[in-house]
Amino acid sequence: MMMREGSICKRAKSHARMLLAAMAVCALLPQAATARGDDGEVEVAAAAVAGSASSADLPRLVLPPVAAAGAVNVGSATSRLVLPTPAYPFTRSEQVVEQAFGQRVADPYRWLEGDVRRSDEVARWVANQNAVSGAYLAQLPGRDALSARIRRLFDYERFSLPRKAGRSYFYLYNSGLQNQSALYVRDGLDGAGRMLLDPDSWAEGGTVALDGWVPSPRGRYLAYTQQAAGSDWRTIRVVEVGSGRVLDERLRWANDTLIGWVGEEGFLYSRYPAPSDDAGLQAPAFDKAVWFHRVGTPQSQDQLVYATPDHRDWAHKAAVTSDGRWAVILTEDSTLPRRAVHLIDLRRGVGRDGWRVLPLVADLADDWKLVDGIGDRLWFITNQGAPNYRLVQVDLGPDPSIKVVIPERTQALEGGRIVGDRLVLSYLQDGAAVAVVTDLKGRPARSITINSIGSASGFGGRPGDPESFYQFSSFNQPPAVFRMDMRTGETTPFAQPKLGFDPQDYLIEQRTYPSKDGTQVPIYIVRKRSLARAGMAAPTLLYGYGGFDVALTPAYSPVRMAWLEAGGAFALANIRGGGEFGRAWYDAGRLDKKQNSFDDFIAAGEFLIREGITPKGGLAIQGGSNGGMMVGAVINQRPDLFAAANPDVGVMDMLRFDRFTQGRFWTQDYGNPAHEADWKVLRAYSPYHNIHAGLYPAILVTTADTDDRVVPGHSFKYVAALQAAPVGERPHLLRVEQDAGHGSGKPVDKVIAGGADVLAFLAYWTGLDLR
Question: Parallel, antiparallel, or unpaired: how do β-strands 732-737 and 698-704 relate?
């Protein structure tokens, strides 16, 4: 009897803690409400996020396999619930409730916004979460075999596109499993390659990456940026090419910078002021300016070239035309495609008498992308009067003028270069990158046609160069590099990967499907031909982004290929908000139209099931950054549709995203939480604020401790809310990568380990048999 009474008391205390936690955060949910019933007790409706009660205190509903949400008889689906739901670590909650535009909003996990590198409490919480997820992921059937498969698929020679300077050709090379690719140089196209920089020697485990690199015009020097632990902050170094000697200077606090060489003397670059110790690396950054660095001098002697102290939120970058005549300064204030343009005539010398900056486009109204310049003529790609962009020539002579060289087309014009005496223009056609070659007056010379679904990109070079290099890749084809003779148009292979699989074994299709409002949305579907011929449904991984005018085009991923090899299908939906189909497509998925992105993605899942591509209960979804937010939003809106999900480095708190690092730049895409109309839109779909009671899919949230673009606190708060909510028995786990950031610069070993964990998790809950 004594034991039974103790058990009853324990249960009562547990339920009381749950009730108090639910009361504390009910304002977080649009479905939640509190009321006083006739008996004087407080009733809590749909309180889906809690706090002070640990997951171990929550009552568990043990479901037989046949009753599990989304369970299907595919592959190993019948054994899905063999692994017990893990007991989540304790997460402290606080009584943080704010009043905004007449609504009360709770934020019980705000303390998890603390920088994991500076807060011992947050670091302990992350370590506990990683311990739980690590133990769970290690048990997944086929996880080790999947890791070995991904490693094998990574093990092939990889070359970047070469860049020419003087007689030298520079390129990246990876023998297969190097954590970071090394930079090589050749004397002449057919010369022997010599390693110039080896990033694998910079830090144990390859956690310091070679990011950008630009040789000086004659190839005497090369400036490059180092990225530590995936951070967006960069350090610029200089190497003397002939000797391989790295010079002493270190230029710190560069972030999203161009490097524009001014002869062989030095270069223009962009940086922020050093952040204060109190602010830390998650604080908003202001006052990005253009500086000139003279080779061989310390950063303290750099010259300020251009800044706007009256507009501290404006950000400036500088490019230099290939002939060295003009420095072109591009200014932006958000992620919207709009820039101001200023010029510096470099014939006046390198800043000896000051830097005279002249306005070309003074206002931030339209987008201007520099192509290049020859003498007093500059070529730009602009959306001024052309939502899909057009190419214009700016004449800076005695009678300045702007004339259209290539008018707007139905396809979006993405970029261009002048190579030799030709223009090479990159268009987006049906969601893939294609190239067109014209003369400098816009008269067609040739098109580059490829008889398969994929993307042709690159086309680097300068006026007068005899050649250009480009690469072609697709879902089943790693990038192959080709050299194109600009005089004859002849194309020859420069570097083609040797593969351990046959690309022809995989079918790539592009279809369309109707979204909720009837809009036809394109989708790529990739799977084994044998599956398609047999008409067999397969567990499917659906990926999307839908934001910031970013176009997702066909590309190769060894991790994704491992999923396909195992018999899964992959789908890429080109949802609204992306840049695949011009400005109208982008505008249809931002601000108060953001719900269109979610509707498009949900409709993609329904289409895949309806068409028999994937079985019901066999659909996994994935997205990163803005795509991670999108995954979180659609889970809340349609949890029944998905078996498993991986929101990666997502923006999960839409009411506070603008408080960190570069978040203020995103308000033109999302809206400004300080404005009532925008706040209401954001509140309606914010993943963190809209978790509700129900049966949710299995969710593995992934982020990294050094992500200073989308700070990991977004993911931390979202996971804490998920783990405290009554959202079913499937696991809701957090995996935090150590010494990594938003994605770029991640060592191959970390990519393999992370990819194996994520795919094994998704495979287990969709029924994909990895044996």
Answer: parallel
621 sits in which H/E element: strand 619-624
Look up 742 and say whether it is catalytic: yes
Characterize the bridge pairing of strands 390-395 and 377-382.
antiparallel
Q: Where are the domains of the chain?
A: 97-151+501-766, 160-320
Q: Report the pLDDT value the prediction gives residue 278, as an integer from 0 to 100.
A: 67
Token readout for 671 is 């809206």
pLDDT tens for 196-246 read 999 999 999 999 999 999 999 999 999 999 999 999 999 999 999 999 999
According to the model, what pLDDT value does residue 352 have? Answer: 63
Sequence-ordered strand ranges (E) for 346-431: 358-361, 368-374, 377-382, 390-395, 401-406, 412-419, 422-429
Contact (CB, 8 A) for 369 and 415: yes
Helix count (H) and strand count (E) of the chain? 12, 42
Domains 97-151+501-766 and 160-320 share a fold: no
Residue 76 has pLDDT above 70, yes or no: no
Structure tokens belonging to residue 529:
């031909």
Average pLDDT of the segment spanning 656-661: 95
Q: Please give the residue that has the higher pLDDT: either 70 or 738.
A: 738
Q: Which of 557, 625, 686, 715 is catalytic?
A: 625
* CA dist., res. 146 & res. 676, Å (int): 48
What pTM was computed for the model?
Answer: 0.89
- The residue among 4, 30, 24 whose CA lies nearest residue 692 is 30
Is 572 exposed, middle or buried (CB count within 10 Å of its CB: 0-12, 13-18, 19+)?
Answer: buried
**Residue type (1 letter), 33:** A
Instruction: Say if CB 691 and CB 717 are below 8 A apart.
Output: no
The number of angstroms, rounded, from the C-alpha of 318 to the middle of its chain's C-alpha atoms is 24
Q: Which residue's structure tokens are 């003779």?
A: 485
Which of 316, 714, 732, 742 is labelled catalytic? 742
d(CA 673, CA 394): 39
CA distance 203 to 518: 52
Residue 445 pLDDT > 90: no
Residue 270 has pLDDT above 60, yes or no: yes
Q: Which amino acid is residue 203, in one-letter code?
A: A
Is the CATH number of domain 97-151+501-766 3.30.565.10?
no
Active site residue 625: yes
pLDDT above 60 for 37 = no
Cβ proximity of 558 and 508 under 8 Å? no
The 10s digit of each residue's pLDDT in 157-192 is 999 999 999 999 999 999 999 999 999 999 999 999
Token pair recorded at residue 497: 């990967």
Beta bridge partners of 328: 319, 343
> Residue 449's pLDDT is what?
67
At the fourth CATH level, the homologous superfamily of domain 160-320 is Prolyl oligopeptidase, N-terminal domain (2.130.10.120)
Distance CA 319, CA 380 (A): 13
